[in-house]
Design brief:
18 strands; binds manganese (II) ion; seven-stranded antiparallel β-sheet; Rossmann fold; binds guanosine-5'-diphosphate; four-stranded antiparallel β-sheet; Dna Ligase, domain 1; 13 helices; D-amino Acid Aminotransferase, Chain A, domain 1; 378 residues; alpha+beta
C-alpha cells in the first residue's frame, strides 16, 4: 500500500526528519489560507500515487497566496497518468542548492534492509540506475545491529556532503530508518533531500510503501489507504480476498497459488503471450470465488483468452470446473478459454468442462501454448 507524499512526510517528521512547513487543501480557497499562513513563496503539489508529478505539470511554484490559489485551481481536478488530483499539498518553497536521493528498501537477495543514497537526487532513482549506476551507493543494514552511526557518517562523506551538514544528515538517515522499521515499510524514500541556501537539510519529497502483509499491525496506517491507488478490479478482488494484480497483456490467468501463478505467467510469456493479470484464487476456492474471479478477468476488454491453471489439493478440480460454468452462465462472453486441471477430482473436473466445450490440457506448457494460439484467433 502506497502512502501519499504528505502522509509519508508527516511520518518522517514524527521520526525527527525535517520537512517543509505546509498543509493539504482540497479547494483553491483552502490553498490560499495555507499559503497566507506560510507567507512568501510556496509550492503547490498534486497528491497522486504516481511518480514524476513534476514533469506532468503537477508541481508548481507560487510567489504568493494569490498565485497559490490560482495554481491550486489549475492542479485540482487535473489528470496525472490516469489519476485525478483531489488534494494538493501547499509547502513552503525551499531554496534548493543540492538534491540528494535517500531511500530504504528490503534487499531480497541480501535478506536485509539496505539504505540507498545518491548525489543525483531529484530524478527517479530507476533512471539514475540506468544512466549513472556508479552514482548509487548501497548500504546493507544488519537486521540485528540496526543502522550504525559510522555507516550514516560514511554515507554522508560518500555523498560529498560538507562537514557542517554531517550531523544533520546522520539524524535524517536514522529518522528515515526508524520510520521504515516502525511502519513495516517495504520502501521509505526521500527524493529529493535538499541542502538549502541557508545550509539546512530538508525532505522536500517523501514516499512510503507499506507491506500489506504487516498492515494488520498498523490499524492507523491502514486507514490512510487511498482507494485511487487500486484499479476498480483490484479493489473488487481485495474485497473477496483474491490476490489480483492487473497487467497489460491479453491472456487472463486464473491460478491457485501465488508461485504457480508466477510460473503460469512465465510460461505464457515463453510461448509468446503476455499475461493480462496475476491472479491467485487461493487454496480451497469454491465455485462462487471462481465466478467472481472470472468476472474480474473478463472485465478487462484487452483479454483475448483465459488460461486456468489449477492444481487440485485442497482446491477440488470439479468445484473449479463448476465455478467456471456458473460464471459463464452469469457473464456472457466470446473469449475462448483453456484449462489445465490436475489433482483432486481432475477427471470429474475435465468431464464437466468437456460438456461445456471448454478444452483442457494435460500439461501447463500445452495449456499456455493453446491459450496463446486462442488469443491470436488460431
Ligand atoms: P516528483 O516529481 O513527484 O518526484 O515530486 P518532487 O516533490 O520530488 O518535486 C520534483 C522537483 O521539483 C524536485 O526535485 C525539485 O527540483 C522541485 N521542487 C520541489 N519542491 C520545491 C521547492 O520547494 N522549491 C524548489 N525550488 N523546487 C522544488
Ligand atoms: Mn520526487
Amino acid at each position: 500500500m502506497k502512502l501519499h507524499e504528505y502522509q509519508s512526510k508527516r511520518i518522517f517528521a514524527d521520526h525527527g526528519v525535517p520537512i517543509p512547513q505546509g498543509d493539504i487543501a482540497t479547494t483553491p480557497e483552502q490553498a490560499r489560507i495555507i499559503a497566507e499562513k506560510i507567507g512568501g513563496k510556496v509550492v503547490v503539489k498534486s497528491q497522486v500515487l504516481v511518480g514524476g508529478r513534476g514533469k506532468a505539470g503537477g508541481i508548481k511554484l507560487a510567489k504568493d497566496a494569490d498565485e497559490a490559489e490560482e495554481l491550486a485551481r489549475q492542479i485540482l481536478g487535473m489528470d496525472i497518468k490516469g489519476l485525478t488530483v483531489e488534494t494538493v499539498l501547499i509547502d513552503q518553497a525551499a531554496n534548493i542548492k543540492k538534491e540528494i536521493y535517500l531511500g530504504v528498501v528490503i534487499d531480497r537477495a541480501l535478506q536485509k534492509p539496505i539504505i540507498i543514497g545518491s548525489s543525483e537526487g531529484g530524478v527517479e532513482i530507476e533512471e539514475v540506475a540506468k544512466t549513472k549506476p556508479e552514482a548509487i551507493i548501497h548500504l546493507p543494514i544488519g537486521i540485528r545491529t540496526g543502522l550504525m552511526d559510522y555507516q550514516a557518517r560514511n554515507l554522508a562523506h560518500d555523498l560529498g556532503l560538507r562537514r557542517t551538514h554531517i550531523t544533520q544528515f546522520v539524524g535524517i538517515v536514522e529518522g528515515l530508518y526508524r520510520a521504515f522499521i516502525s511502519t513495516d515499510a517495504s520502501l521509505a524514500e526521500i527524493n529529493p533531500l535538499v541542502v538549502t541556501g541557508e545550509g539546512k537539510l530538508l525532505a522536500v519529497d517523501g514516499k512510503i510503501v507499506l507491506d500489506d502483509n504487516a498492515l494488520f499491525r498498523h490499524p492507523n496506517l491502514n486507514k490512510l489507504r487511498d482507494i485511487q491507488e487500486e484499479t476498480p478490479s483490484e479493489r473488487e478482488a481485495r474485497k473477496i480476498d483474491i490476490n489480483f494484480i492487473k497487467l497489460d497483456g491479453e491472456i487472463g490467468c486464473m491460478v491457485n497459488g501465488a508461485g504457480l501463478a508466477m510460473a503460469t505467467m512465465d510460461i505464457t510469456k515463453h510461448y509468446g503471450g503476455e499475461p493480462a493479470n496475476f491472479l491467485d484464487i487461493g487454496g480451497g476456492a469454491k465455485a462462487d470465488k471462481v465466478t467472481a474471479a472470472l468476472r474480474i478477468i473478463l472485465d478487462d476488454p484487452k483479454v483475448k483468452a483465459v488460461l486456468f491453471n489449477i492444481f487440485g489439493g485442497i482446491t477440488r478440480c470439479d468445484e473449479v470446473a463448476k465455478g467456471i460454468l456458473e460464471a459463464l452462465e452469469q457473464v456472457q462472453t466470446n473469449v475462448p478459454m483453456v484449462a489445465r486441471l490436475v489433482g483432486t477430482n481432475e477427471e470429474e473436473g475435465r468431464r464437466i468442462l468437456a460438456e461445456a466445450n471448454i478444452p483442457t490440457a494435460s500439461s501447463l506448457g500445452e495449456a499456455a501454448e493453446k491459450a496463446v494460439a486462442l488469443a491470436r484467433g488460431v
